[in-house]
What does this fold into?
Amino acid sequence: MERFWNKNTGSNRPLSPHITIYSWSLPMAMSIGHRGTGVALSAGVSLFGLSALLLPGNFESHLELVKSLSLGPVLIHSAKFALAFPLTYHTWNGVRHLMWDLGKGLKIPQLTQSGVAVLVLSVLSSLGLAAM
Amino acid sequence: MAAAARVSLRRRFPAAALGGACLQACRGAQTAAATAPRIKKFAIYRWDPDKTGDKPRMQTYEVDLNKCGPMVLDALIKIKNEMDSTLTFRRSCREGICGSCAMNINGGNTLACTRRIDTNLNKVSKIYPLPHMYVIKDLVPDLSNFYAQYKSIEPYLKKKDESQQGKQQYLQSIEDRDKLAYRWMIDSRDEFTEERLAKLQDPFSLYRCHTIMNCTRTCPKGLNPGKAIAEIKKMMATYKEKKASA
It folds into this structure.
């Protein structure tokens, strides 16, 4: 294998195109989504922690600040939805991942069914959380 | 008119290598003698290592589907024979069993000999080599790393006591043969299961799999490697590691 790498990296051979040409599918997109929401959630939690440590004032004062902006209810609701969605998506898809680790649901039609179920559940739970 | 078309085609195709394709094309020519040509465009990835400064590019070819077999490999062979003999690709059995003609067709990895040409003439068929591989020429990737990886899993039966070799057929129950999905691990005739599992105990060999399942989706033989890998991961969690390292 080392010979392979030495030979090819030293040559002028091009690498065949991959993400630019591969056709997208639901499971593939949802997998990237799982990674993306995971990164976003981690970053969000870290930012929240850092803000709590470094920014002046407490949580209530920041809440009052947002309330004083008098944003429309539609905007507030959409913002809450946008914050809740990564959490619910990552959670429900996480359950799907755990089922896979048990060896269940790994046939192609099952993949599509569970994928759609996760998306529907995520949207519904996000709406629910945002309405609270 | 049909007879004339048949004779000219026979002269052009060397019988030895392409008997099958010749016969198909001949039949096609007969039935198509009276109908309008159905032109399909193929955009194919090209790159020549011998041409200095050549960059990978897409070259478009037009093929009359009435004069061509139904599979993508038929089109590739036709292009190579009649339009551009520099087009380079691997092929062998033309029946979907050897794996030589594996390439990326319209965004999915399959065998060219089993993938039907999409007869929608408004769409261009895009043909690329297997993704993310070093290209030797046109549609031919460097598979030596792949072969080395295959060699590293020792794809043959291993028994602890070789003295019984050749005496009798090793028998298997019907249930055992049903599980040949994840081949060597669960083959009851192989006694090195624990050592095989121990060999995968590093962050790369097995655990780079993130259950994206593109493998099962694309398999031209209908196999489920995604499930097999999941089963191996389960086995990794439950086998007794002390036995193997002892």
Remarks:
- The interface with chain A takes residues 45, 47, 49, 55-56, 104, 106-108, 126, 128-136, 141-142, 144-145, 148-149, 210-214, 216-217, 224, 226-227, 230-231, 233-234 of chain B (CB under 8 Å).
- Residues 72 and 106 of chain B are 11 Å apart (CA to CA).
- The mean pLDDT of chain B is 77.
- The first helix of chain B runs from residue 2 to 12.
